[in-house]
Amino acid sequence: MTNTQVTLIQIDNYGPWTVTPAPRRETDLQTLQSRLFADLSQQIGAHGGYAFFTRFDNIIAVTNGMDVPDHARIQESIGNRYPVTISMGIGLGETPAEALVEATTRLQEQGSAQDQDRREVLLGSTLNPTERTDEDIQIAHFDVIDATGKYTDQLDAFSTFIHIEQGYATLMRHLHDEYGGLAFFVGGDNVIAVCPELETPEYEAIIEHVESTANVTLQVGVGAGSTAHDAGMAAKHGLEVCREEGTRVEGSLAD
Amino acid sequence: MTNTQVTLIQIDNYGPWTVTPAPRRETDLQTLQSRLFADLSQQIGAHGGYAFFTRFDNIIAVTNGMDVPDHARIQESIGNRYPVTISMGIGLGETPAEALVEATTRLQEQGSAQDQDRREVLLGSTLNPTERTDEDIQIAHFDVIDATGKYTDQLDAFSTFIHIEQGYATLMRHLHDEYGGLAFFVGGDNVIAVCPELETPEYEAIIEHVESTANVTLQVGVGAGSTAHDAGMAAKHGLEVCREEGTRVEGSLAD
Amino acid sequence: MTNTQVTLIQIDNYGPWTVTPAPRRETDLQTLQSRLFADLSQQIGAHGGYAFFTRFDNIIAVTNGMDVPDHARIQESIGNRYPVTISMGIGLGETPAEALVEATTRLQEQGSAQDQDRREVLLGSTLNPTERTDEDIQIAHFDVIDATGKYTDQLDAFSTFIHIEQGYATLMRHLHDEYGGLAFFVGGDNVIAVCPELETPEYEAIIEHVESTANVTLQVGVGAGSTAHDAGMAAKHGLEVCREEGTRVEGSLAD
Amino acid sequence: MTNTQVTLIQIDNYGPWTVTPAPRRETDLQTLQSRLFADLSQQIGAHGGYAFFTRFDNIIAVTNGMDVPDHARIQESIGNRYPVTISMGIGLGETPAEALVEATTRLQEQGSAQDQDRREVLLGSTLNPTERTDEDIQIAHFDVIDATGKYTDQLDAFSTFIHIEQGYATLMRHLHDEYGGLAFFVGGDNVIAVCPELETPEYEAIIEHVESTANVTLQVGVGAGSTAHDAGMAAKHGLEVCREEGTRVEGSLAD
């Protein structure tokens, strides 16, 4: 049974800020958002966690191994270096989706994402170190089989992007609604999903669903660990096996 | 008639690099990708252009106003500061989609995105300054009506994300396949599209299509200009009018 | 005769901000300052200019080739992405020192660097494009002869640093007070100086002064150009000649 | 008695890289160096340490609280994201200067800073956690009394810089040669020094030496702690007391 700790990171009152006193230059907003995400990725990554850019103003992170002071230090650092501040809600759950529901509720109870007075909230509790196990996190790393040969080198760049995007949209909804997993596009043709404890037949069914719905063929490496990094590296190695051996599902899985 | 100059920016041989000699730490890759994009956004933005993160290893930019040496300087700067290099293909077309087909072809003719020997290619020609007009670019800036009130403050963060993502997946495919426009998710609930010359009834039809297909209700501000920045700022102001007046389509449009 | 355009960039009210409401974490300040400088270096560099970190809250730049709107765009971009804002004063002069006096006066007339109400000032005028020449800028790129062999690989890192720092302190004062040049430590054992029109005997005298005063032996490459970048690249090539041939002063100089 | 852990961070073979195959654009080098330092400052700061930019290609850090795997993770992260790699030597000592001698020796024994084959060295051992105390680090935070009123708002920017630079050059040499302390300019008119256990009369003598030698008048806040951050925050608060009360030396000191 997985035991995922999820943190929702929300830029405080961001929408209104982007148009006050007048709409701000789009390329500055893009730079601001992507650098803020890059910093969070490094800071959370230093503790073995994973951050996903998601909507950029709402960033979802897997933070097993981080306590509340670790969160506070990151929040302070962003507040010292950016023109915006962030709030953080932490949740726990047997599935990643349940953990995120709790994390979201923490923030929503304190006010709207566009509430001028809700700033730098940090709420929720983290996993007790004594209860942590090597199977708290399951990461599934998907990619598109031969994406470069079939798409990138053949189609124009947007047509390739459409294929990948339709595959992702199908996968992220299906994995969430059917299994309580959270799937994130991470660039190229890669999707990293934080999953509950799923096994080979379930991953095969998921791949089949995406193929029949969006006509995109995926392979997946799966790993478990006490942190997102440990699980994620195992998943990456699983995916390398898929690439070498032409299999569809590899990793530390029961059959 | 629009006259869009599109540049496809591709990280050279990126997929293989990320797993050589072994899979690299995911949070480092995320930081690398998002900072590389942030730099391109600033550098292209300094010339009035727009860069979209797209797949991060394949970044699409609207570069009206930039010549080939401007591209070369950015390419050199990335090569000097990152462990990876970029290739660039430039294309022109009456629709943004056509321009991107040309830009993509330039790169594909030089070799695969995963070809070790294809490095720092820069091909294609740019608009003649004497032929540029104030209507070369049309930008449509979409967002979801009351996304904060209806989704962000009500649903958990992933359920909100699913809604926005399904809306985007529908919009980007429809706009491309029916009109030759290129739509990019830019964070929050915002999508910026580079369009051919479309008018109010067409935008109304597009919004209706997304609503009936993905159950997400959009509004849109539209602007024209000689650069992406000029058109984009006009589009942002149009969107502000939508927000204030409760209308669906605003901006510099024929009726 | 050189014709240097110098811009003084000052972070507005920075000292008080760093301790409000309480002293901020030093490593965040260091990150903020060095990234802000890095952005300015890129943005000014895109126009062929040079920015020097100087005191970090007072950054001096050589901006031949940039007009006032170019400055305004950079000022806006920093204001959109940092928790602090910058003011800019532009000056012209036959010597770099005179140009900086004018640039500084522009800002001082508007209020103190620690005035809460002096924000985002941008004053001064730039070179008329028709008056620009290929000899407007002279750059001298100094380094310490065999610094790695004599210092870095022999002494402990701070003792090496002391040598380099004493050499720099001597050079920067002498060049300013005797010639009206502005010398900046740029890392390693390198100093880049923006000079008036000096010739070989004067560079020889400068090197001798530093040797006799601080016991550090320098070599120098010199270049001229219409921008800092053009002059600076010529200077770098001159320095490569010094390294190869064991000479002390090389570049585009009268004898 | 202090017990400082110092890490010397050296960019591998940096000098040759900057001119291979030809001199690289200076503004790219400046951006690369200052961003690399900014990242180290964040990464080391996350563990309570301090990094000082020093020569940029040789960065000195106080790393009490970090073990060897913490260092390795940072080294890997830089290697994954920059076109250059870093080596690290760690040293311990009763004075900071002694610790740095040890740290430097670790690297020098492995080869030159310009040795093509010496890459990503990580050597030395860190403090045993059981031996750490709340007085392992002493930080002295100096600034120039009324620098804004006397210099920044009165003199031109370079003349102000000369004063601050001469004061720093005097202080850094004196503190090193007489006491074994390491002083670093950190921007504005601020110098942060890592010291052995000094007391009020010694700080008064240091200030007097700088005043009589370089004609710059300093004040100083002093703090102790088990990490650079803890000691440094106490020092900052001491400096605030100096500013409010017009005293010269404040902090957690014996008389």
Automatic annotation (TrEMBL), chains A, B, C, D:
Question: Which GO molecular-function terms appear in the entry?
Answer: GTP binding; GTP cyclohydrolase IIa activity
- Give the originating organism: Halodesulfurarchaeum formicicum
**Family matches, as Pfam families:** GCH_III (PF05165)
The top EC class is hydrolase
The protein's job, in short, is: Catalyzes the formation of 2-amino-5-formylamino-6-ribofuranosylamino-4(3H)-pyrimidinone ribonucleotide monophosphate and inorganic phosphate from GTP. Also has an independent pyrophosphate phosphohydrolase activity.
Q: What is its EC number?
A: 3.5.4.29
Q: What are the record keywords, sorted?
A: GTP-binding, Hydrolase, Nucleotide-binding
HAMAP family assigned to the protein according to its UniProt record, in alphabetical order: GTP_cyclohydro_3 (MF_00608)
Query: Which InterPro entries does the record cross-reference, listed alphabetically?
Result: GTP_CycHdrlase_3, Nucleotide_cyclase, Rev_trsase/Diguanyl_cyclase
Q: What is this protein called?
A: GTP cyclohydrolase III
What is catalyzed by this enzyme? GTP + 3 H2O = 2-amino-5-formylamino-6-(5-phospho-D-ribosylamino)pyrimidin-4(3H)-one + 2 phosphate + 2 H(+)
The record's family statement is:
Belongs to the archaeal-type GTP cyclohydrolase family.
Specify whether Iron-sulfur is a keyword of the entry: no
